[in-house]
Amino acid sequence: STLFPYTTLFRSMYTLLEKWFRDTGYPDIADSVFLEEKSRERHGLGVSSWLWSWFIFFLVGQGRHPGLALLWSALIIAMGAYVFRNENQMEYAMDDNPRPAYSSLWYSLDLFLPLARLRAADTWVPASRHRSMWLYMRLHQLLGWILIPIGFAAITGLIK
After folding, report:
1. What angle do CA 15, 20, 26 make, to 5 degrees?
2. At how many degrees (to 10) do helices 3-23 and 27-41 cross?
3. For residues 18 and 34, is the Cβ–Cβ distance under 8 A?
């Protein structure tokens, strides 16, 4: 296509400008150049690539702001602690006596962390009459499975 050389040149100019700012000690400006490049790049993408690009921008700032993943994680955990705040809406799922103390924050954290077993989510479950809490519990777990790997990928530099 006739646009391919222009697109390659356009992309390489952003890359050179970003590298120059980074090498001269202006990493914030270099990150801004990178984000502007990604913003302009979105104009030529298909729907799925465009949505993925916005999703990654929203969650981790295209990998340039991985701390956003920590912020989103904290917000989701706090929201879970709010949703599961009432012990009366929870059921004890074990046969052990005595029952351990219930903590909505601990429960929310256990649900959110994908591979961790803090035993709160094994011990407590929403009461069967609270279908909306069961739905949110599954959504909460799914958000953990999505956000934690994307956050790690951004921190390690795999997302650029």
Report:
1. 115
2. 160
3. yes
Which letter, b or e, does each residue of 18-56 get, where b requires 16 or more Cβ atoms within 10 Å of its Cβ?
beebbeeeeeeebbebbbebbeebeeeeeeeeeeebeeb
Kindly tell me if the per-residue pLDDT of 25 is higher than 50.
Answer: yes
Instruction: Centre a 10 Å sphere on the Cβ of residue 157 and count the other Cβ atoms it contains.
Output: 9
Q: What is the mean pLDDT of residues 107-133?
A: 90
Tell me the C-alpha to C-alpha distance, in Å, between residue 34 and each of 58, 65, 85, 120, 156: 15, 12, 42, 42, 17
Residue 4 has pLDDT above 60, yes or no: no
Torsion of CA 140, 54, 149, 64, to 10 degrees: -130
CB-based contacts of 123: which residues, under 8 Å, 6+ apart? 92, 93, 94, 100
Separation of alpha carbons 59 and 51, rounded Å: 12
User: Is a pLDDT exceeding 70 seen at residue 111?
Assistant: yes
- Please give the angle made by the CA atoms of 114, 78 and 69, to the nearest 5 degrees: 55
Residue written as tokens 């981790």? 60
* Three-class SS state of 125: strand
State the pTM of this model. 0.74
